[in-house]
Amino acid sequence: LPERSTNLLGVRHILLVLSGKGGVGKSTLSTELALALRHHGHRVGILDVDLCGPSIPRMLRVQDRAVHQCDNGWVPVFVGQDRAIALMSIGFLLEQPDDAVVWRGPKKNALIKQFVTDVAWGDLDFLIVDTPPGTSDEHISTVEALRPYRLLGAILVTTPQ
C-alpha cells in the first residue's frame, strides 16, 4: 500500500451501513451502534460518506467543529469528553452546516477515496461507514477504496414494507 493509504491499518474492523432507499435510519443506526460500542469500551470511528445528507455531526452535536490537517492527512473530530468516537464527515468541510452539496459523480467519488486514504484514524476497534441512500456510484467507490482493508461486513437497513 502507498504510504498515504496506511491511515486505516490501525482499524481492526470496518462495517458498512447500507440501504436501498433513504429515510430508513442508516445514520441513526450508525450513531447508535457507535455509541453502544463505545459504551462497551471500544474505540470507534464513523466515516459519514452520505455527502448530500451528512446528518451524523448534528446527531452527535458536533456540527460546529472543524477538521484540521496533520502530517498524515485530516484529523477527525473527536466526540465527547472521553474522545472515544472519531468522526469524519463532509459536514465539517461546508461553510454552513445546511449547505447543499451538488456534485457530479467523479467529484463525489474522489472525495470518498480521499476520506478513506487521507483521514488519520489512529487505532480503532471499529470504523462504521454510513453510506448514502440507494445503490449509487458512491457505494461502489466506497467498497473499492476499502477493499484492501478487509471489511468485516455490512448492515443492510430496511423497513417492513
Q: What does this protein look like?
A:
The protein is of the alpha/beta class. It has one domain (11-157): P-loop containing nucleotide triphosphate hydrolases (Rossmann fold, 3-Layer(aba) Sandwich). Helix content is 25%, strand content 24%. It has a six-stranded mixed beta sheet with strand order 5-6-2-7-1-8, with helices on one face. A hairpin with a 5-residue loop joins strand 5 and strand 6. The model has no long low-confidence stretch (mean pLDDT 84).
User: What helical percentage do the residues reach?
Assistant: 25-40%
- Tell me which CATH architecture applies here: 3-Layer(aba) Sandwich
> What is the CATH C-level name?
Alpha Beta
- The fraction of residues in strands falls at 15-25%
- Strand order, sheet with most strands: 5-6-2-7-1-8
Describe the main β-sheet briefly: 6 strands, mixed
Q: How many β-strand stretches?
A: 8
Tally of individual domains:
1
CATH domain topology: Rossmann fold
Find the CATH superfamily.
P-loop containing nucleotide triphosphate hydrolases
Helix-strand makeup class: alpha/beta
Task: Note the run of SSEs as H and E.
Answer: EHEHEEEEHEHE
Global mean pLDDT: 84
Overall radius of gyration: 14 Å
Silhouette: globular
GO biological process, one term: iron-sulfur cluster assembly
Protein name: NUBP2 factor
GO cellular component, one term: cytosol
GO molecular function: 4 iron, 4 sulfur cluster binding; ATP binding; ATP-dependent FeS chaperone activity; metal ion binding
